[in-house]
Amino acid sequence: MQQESQKDIQDHLRDSLQDSLQHIPKTDKLLNALNAELKMVNPSLLKRITLEFLDAYRQELLEGGVLLDFSTCVKRIVATYQNATQKSLKPLINATGIVVHTNLGRSIFSEEILEEIKPILTQYNNLEYNLQKGSRGERYIHLQGQFKALLGAEDVLVVNNNAAAVFLILNTFAKGKEVIVSRGELIEIGGSFRIPRVMEDSGAILHEVGTTNKTHFKDYQEAISENSAMLFKAHKSNYAIEGFSEEVGFNELVKLARKYNLIDYYDLGSGYFSVLDSVFTGYEPSLETISALNPSLVSFSGDKLIGGAQAGIIFGKKALIDKLKQNQLLRMLRVDKFTIAALEATLSAYLKGNIKVIPTAQMLLRDKESLHALAQELAAQIPPNFNPQIIATKSYSGGGAMPSHYLESFGVAIFAKDLSVLKLDETKLEQHFRRYGIIARLENSALILDMRTLFKSDFTRIVESLKALL
């Protein structure tokens, strides 16, 4: 009797399971409902997602899961489809006061620049075509004239970022040979990019000189040997050595390199044109100042202080640039038409003195009076429940430049004590802003919107997000 009872139970469970499986919607019926629910669908993607859902649903039922009604099945598939087709990159509002913010995409483009390069991107172009000769041309030629006009440089080469520029230069000229560098400049920047590791991977042999805080001219001079190929100077991105310290200027390294027939190379990290001298003089050398030294090679980033596209820009002696072009690595590191077109438009703006179309330059050059006026305008639009206060703030250039010096700015602050009535604190407000794509900073129990990196067009979303809390 007990065996029969167990058999009855098993039969019942099997019948119940079969009944559940029969309730699984048919694929065609689901697809018809989904096509009515969704517009502009990718049929093959929708079918694959639907079949994957049905397989997972069937497995859940086999494991004792609950039945779903038809509309719930449709909603789950729609949610999965929308998630799969949703773009991950989103526009954000930068209220941090950091102009070249690596996490937020570094430099931004103006509508004017994008409109200028739009014909290049939407039509065929002469990227590698010589119109005069009617034959294959070189993609790097498009930037040569502008760099010669701006810097007096003999030649220029552009690769996909400054890390690639460093690697290419070391691999081309110092493979199996010594590169002399100050111990105080053996830097690590974002993404664990370390100068010693880059040298090792490029095939160059690192020769450290000096100490962490002090390196003298004689340290370089005494390190030169028959196996020396290069005197290398690296910008100390994101930090500064102050107090009892000393370093050798690049101008002295250029002279020393010439004396011993070596290559002098400066990895500038961020480079800027002299139009921004009022911001950086005394802290960073301009590209014009470095170029006037007639260096062998210099490299810097295109999407930092000059406000262009991501690129590693190399300028210097034509003979050396020609050798870089012969390195097979260049094929893997080269840039596309968008980068060249965007850089060309950016450099053209500098040549014409039209820096109004370069947002990075605009933000860096904003004076205190205009920043205060912007803060007043934003504060007047914020609901009084939040008691917005205009305060003096410290903003930063970012991108590794001027790490120990701030730019005076103004911001609108909302203090924690004024949020308690709304049952909020500054942390919850910051999280709320992020849901609206607004990135602000927390400081001294307040949420601060720094005006240096904000535009009037950003105010509407900021105000709407606050009104939503009310």
CATH superfamily of the largest domain: Type I PLP-dependent aspartate aminotransferase-like (Major domain)
Question: How many structural domains can be distinguished in the coordinates?
Answer: 3
CATH topology of the largest domain: Aspartate Aminotransferase, domain 2
How many strand segments? 18
**Rg to the nearest angstrom?**
30 Å
Task: Please indicate the percent range of residues in DSSP E strands (runs of 2 or more).
Answer: 15-25%
CATH architecture of the largest domain: 3-Layer(aba) Sandwich
Q: Mind explaining what this structure looks like?
A:
The protein has three domains: 82 residues, no CATH class; 247 residues, Aspartate Aminotransferase, domain 2, CATH 3.40.640.10; 107 residues, Aspartate Aminotransferase, domain 1, CATH 3.90.1150.110. Helix 2 crosses helix 4. The strands form five sheets. Strands 5-13-12-11-10-6-9 form a seven-stranded mixed sheet. It contains 19 helices and 18 strands. The longest helix has 21 residues. By secondary structure, it is an alpha/beta fold. 36% of the residues are buried. The mean pLDDT is 91. The radius of gyration is 30 Å and the shape is globular.
